[in-house]
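Per reviewer request, we include the raw input and output of the structure prediction for the construct analysed in the revised manuscript.
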Amino acid sequence: MATIEHNIFEDIPGQINSPKYHSAILMSFSIELISFERQIVSQLHKHGISSINLLVDEKQFDEEIAFTDSSTLKELGREYYVTTIRSIGAFHPKINLFIGDKEILVVFGSGNLTTLGQGKNHEAFSCLMASGSELKQMPLIAECWEYLAGFVNKYGNNAVKKRIMTEIPSCCIMLKNAILQHNAKHQQIRLRNNLEGMLCYNDDESNILDQISTIIPDKVVSEISVISPFYDSDGFLLQCLLQRYPNSRIDVVLQENCTLPPYEMKKSDRLRFFDFDETSRGKELFMTGSFYRHLHAKIFHFKTKKGEYLLLGSANATKAAWGDGTSKKAINDEFAILFSSSSIDFLSTLGLSERKKLSVKFEKTNEDNSLKKDNLVKPNIRLFNVEVSGDTMYIYIDFKNLQPKQKIDLRIEIDEKYLNITDLLFDKKGVCSVKCNLKPQTAFCQLIDDKGETISNKQFINWPLLLERTNPSIENRTINHIISELELKGYNAKEFLSHVSSLLQTTSHDDETKLVRKYAGNNPSIKTAQKKLPNFDYSMHTGNQSLSKEDVSDFDSYSSSIVRLFDSVKEAIRRQTFSLEDQLLAEEEEGDVNTGKNKTDDNTSALSASDNFIIALNNQAVERILRRKEKKEDDKRIENSTKLPAGKATLPAPTSTEIEKEKEDILLEETESIITKIQNLIDSWHHYIDTRDNLLCNQYGGQITTQDFTLTSMVMLIITQLCALEDHVIFPIKAQKRFASKLTMFSKKILMYFTYLLSGNYLTRNDNSVLDREAKNSLCIALMMGTLGMRALPEESTDIRNNIELSLAALIGLIQLPNVDYVNDQLFSFSKESDYVFKCSEVIGLAERLKAKLKSKEIYQNNKVWYLESKGKKFALKSGYQEDY
């Protein structure tokens, strides 16, 4: 007997390393959140899909979330977005839309986002695909998109509309083109030879019953087969079909324990019942037969002498799903496809042609979710949306039932613990904003009254910052790929150099960056940056809100991803640092003779950590020497016109002196290669800074973002590590000197440019915001770079030293010096990984000296130019944009 267990999400083409699709929009009547997170979300991530968006029936979602603990979920509101849809009857489509840069896949049918719907039930799905030149099915896909977009525009808040209607289409050329075209509804499209398809769904103009009637001629239909688990008690739809197709016989194929059979339907000679479990498909069991498979597919087959028609989708055999035979809209939202062919035997293909009559008296059955419905609290107030941006929580409710001066508290559930926010004040639009200090995690909330009684539905908290990471833009996907590489392979400064160079080249410089700091300029009256409260657009129909004009968050989506990338770099370095320390400690305890007599010696530690590098370097040196000798022998034979000997002569092995000389040459070549790459990186970064500076100068309300700080921090860290920290012992003295001299020039140039960008455009706001945190992180790394850069500087190079000191002092003045513990926390891993090439106390000492000079006015600013006065001489920090390396 055949065994079938099929999950459509396992068959999605592409893997995380070579994804075909980047976004998923899933529509479902019901959902099991725990199984969805543990199975479907992980499968989507394995296929490289980052943007996951759900549209679910509002009543069903309320029931599901009411009986779910926040401790059982990890990603709701953080890795995927849920939008609830309110329907007159039921929001019943089951559509799975997968979107890539150049391809689209739509899988739809009868299966919900539940364990039963994705493998254990008998379900029926169909799919449409478009890719490259294969565009035959694109008209139906475009129509499906318009159908989906209608719900998003009607019920989605601004965040949902941005995610689905803006971000996703901007990353799919086919979808972009489809949106620009006008697509006719319910048109038959040729899918392949002898197969046509038409989408059927209830809309304001017609219902599914009317739509199929325009295609299927009524008097020539001889047989109708209905396969469905749900029917009206009086068999209303079956009666409609008998009347509409007077020459037909209807075979109803159902299970004996059908969930809702037509138990009150009058008998008819043209109506017969068959046992689904006796069909070929019905005999297929789940796994080893330990689980009985329930029929949940919805299939309607019409047969004529000239051909066949097959309707497959979400609609059960009910009046709510199909309509009442008039032009009125059916109360359910349903979605299906009508196939037509003159040669395909649809029922045989589906395993439904073999049948055995079912002669049983139907009885009314109880619905299995009655317990949930009985225990579900009916809310007085509808809680639409709760989201946390920065340190502020925004709460949106249906204000129609809000009583004047009604006392309302918010109860937050986190990991089975409860936190109350009291005395919420809602405006006339039903919006409330409160300060909060929550960590990004799955959390639920409900409104309660002064007696502690629940007065609203249960809602989950959305975290816009985390959700922005799922943006499917190529830049964001690039960052996510780099982060996954860091997590899997660890951090390597040389490899990361090329990643950041590429990232800078694709960074957007448009003026749509969110405003996070007000332009200070030279106006002394502007002391602090004021963060405005948002202007809200409120939809009375849905109550779903979001920010419409100004985002109160301190970062935009791209900036937050850059911050996350740099945090991953620092974490990777921290892991590598302590992993290396543990390895050396283990070797010391074992008394490993190969690694040493003096475990405290810096040289030995560095060499033992780079054994593979040394072996590869030796092999490369030997290979190069032998290759040169072979070429020399070949050139000599050609010059003397001699023939090659029968057996190739063995070349003498390279001497140790030759090998050491060759290794030094290789490392010097590697040094120059790294320096060239660093110069290219600085050029890319300089172009970014120059563009940002021009934008800030020309645009009212200059803006500095976390992206500006974090990209600069990454550039400074990579250069500092490559020049002074990484492999500092292995590289020969000549290479180390070359790196040291270049580090000084690199430090000067970067610190000067960065100072110019911040002067007049950045205003400190000491409220522990994300932006100020990144600014202080940048300052710490700038101090590290300046410390090492000046250490390698000859004593007589006064101008360069003054440039670096002035730049660092300016940054301290603009950003404010973090405390000692903060500096230690930021730089400790970098110091330890480099075997203490520098110590945090050295960096702090430099900062304190510069801070003292600022206080004594030895260093000061005048009209955006920074000056240093010492021993009667004055030095200005002037633009050095055209200065050579």
